[in-house]
Amino acid sequence: TMLALATSGRPPPTRSSPPARASVPSSCAPPDPPLPRRLARLAAALRAPREPRERLLRLARLGERLPPPSTALVAADGTRVSSCTSMVDVLARPSGSGSLRLDGAADSRLARGLVALLVQGLRGERAETLLALDPAQVARAAGLVGALSPSRVNGLGAMIRLMQRQLEAGVAAEAAADATPAGVASAKAAAEAAPADGASATTSGGEGGREAVLRAGSRGSLESAGEEVAVLLSGGVDSSVALRLLHDAGVRTRAFYLRIWLEDEDAHVASGECPWEEDWAYCTAVCEQAGVPLERVSLQREYSSLVVDYLISEARAGRTPNPDIMCNSRVKFGAFMDAVGTHFACVASGHYARCALHGEPGYHHASGGHDSRLARASLAPPLASPLASPLASPLA
């Protein structure tokens, strides 16, 4: 023993000192479970390009394959993904055969791509597959971490978690219905009456269906609007002050942010960011401080057809267009008024214009405020078409 100690330089092990275990490197962590076959194939196709910009372009092209909103999606409650910067709706339901029925819609190209990734990747899978799905694993597998902004990656997770909650509720409802003979008959009738996956609530370009989608997006506020005032927020100072003036006066208000930017996000895919996120963040901060609910309404299609087409037409004719005035008259006080504003006592904005009754009873026209220069800059010339709802301008 003494010889061994002298030659080795360290004491021999004793029975009270168990041999040290070799440390396991972090790289030996258990691998992720395999994704569903179709989802794994779509994720691999998105991850294939080395450049983040190319990955996002592929994601945008994937979104082009997403079908229009189904009748089930438009009619259902609880479909809005609240944590997304874009306006996203998803719906996950169990079918009688045990497979998934998935629907989704979004108002931006990248968000629509994320919805398509889930809807197409999970088509035909069992309910337990979605319930076990890890959002972080999907983002890693598709190469989206670092390519998309953190807010959009979080949005993907919010979509999956909402789908999982919807599915859990649907499975529980089916189990409760199966407990009684009447429930079995009712569930069977509902399954036979339900539209097939992909059944659309609107044909391409259908204005009636489009208005239904807009109304569905604000269903919670429309049902209880009553004497509320809808306030248009842009992210600027004027509309924020208008909201605060009404709120401080004791008026019950609900704020709306109109998304009117075009869906062409190719110029921003390198960073995965949206040009309107800063405006939305400012509106959110203003409403949180005042304790006022805030909703998004997407009017991108209306803005493109009513404002952008006009701008191009006027420029080609050699005339100087004024897109701001056309946006006010045709989109903010046109499309929004028709789809949402009529459900409120009035619509308020940060424009420097006063509203008065003229002509046909029940219709209103906007005209100049106390400061004619600000009124001309805001709504000049005065709105030619009557407004279906009163317009309040606290700053006028």
From TrEMBL:
A GO term, aspect molecular function: ATP binding
Fe-S metabolism associated domain sequence ranges: 47-166
The organism's place on the tree of life at top rank: Eukaryota
Ranges of compositional bias, category Low complexity: 17-27
Pfam families: SufE, tRNA_Me_trans
GO biological process per UniProt: tRNA processing
Keywords assigned: ATP-binding, Disulfide bond, Nucleotide-binding, RNA-binding, Transferase, tRNA processing, tRNA-binding
Region described as Disordered: 1-36
PANTHER family membership: PTHR43052, TRNA-5-TAURINOMETHYLURIDINE 2-SULFURTRANSFERASE (PTHR43052:SF1)
Name used for this protein in its record: Fe-S metabolism associated domain-containing protein
Taxonomy of the source species: Eukaryota, Haptista, Haptophyta, Prymnesiophyceae, Isochrysidales
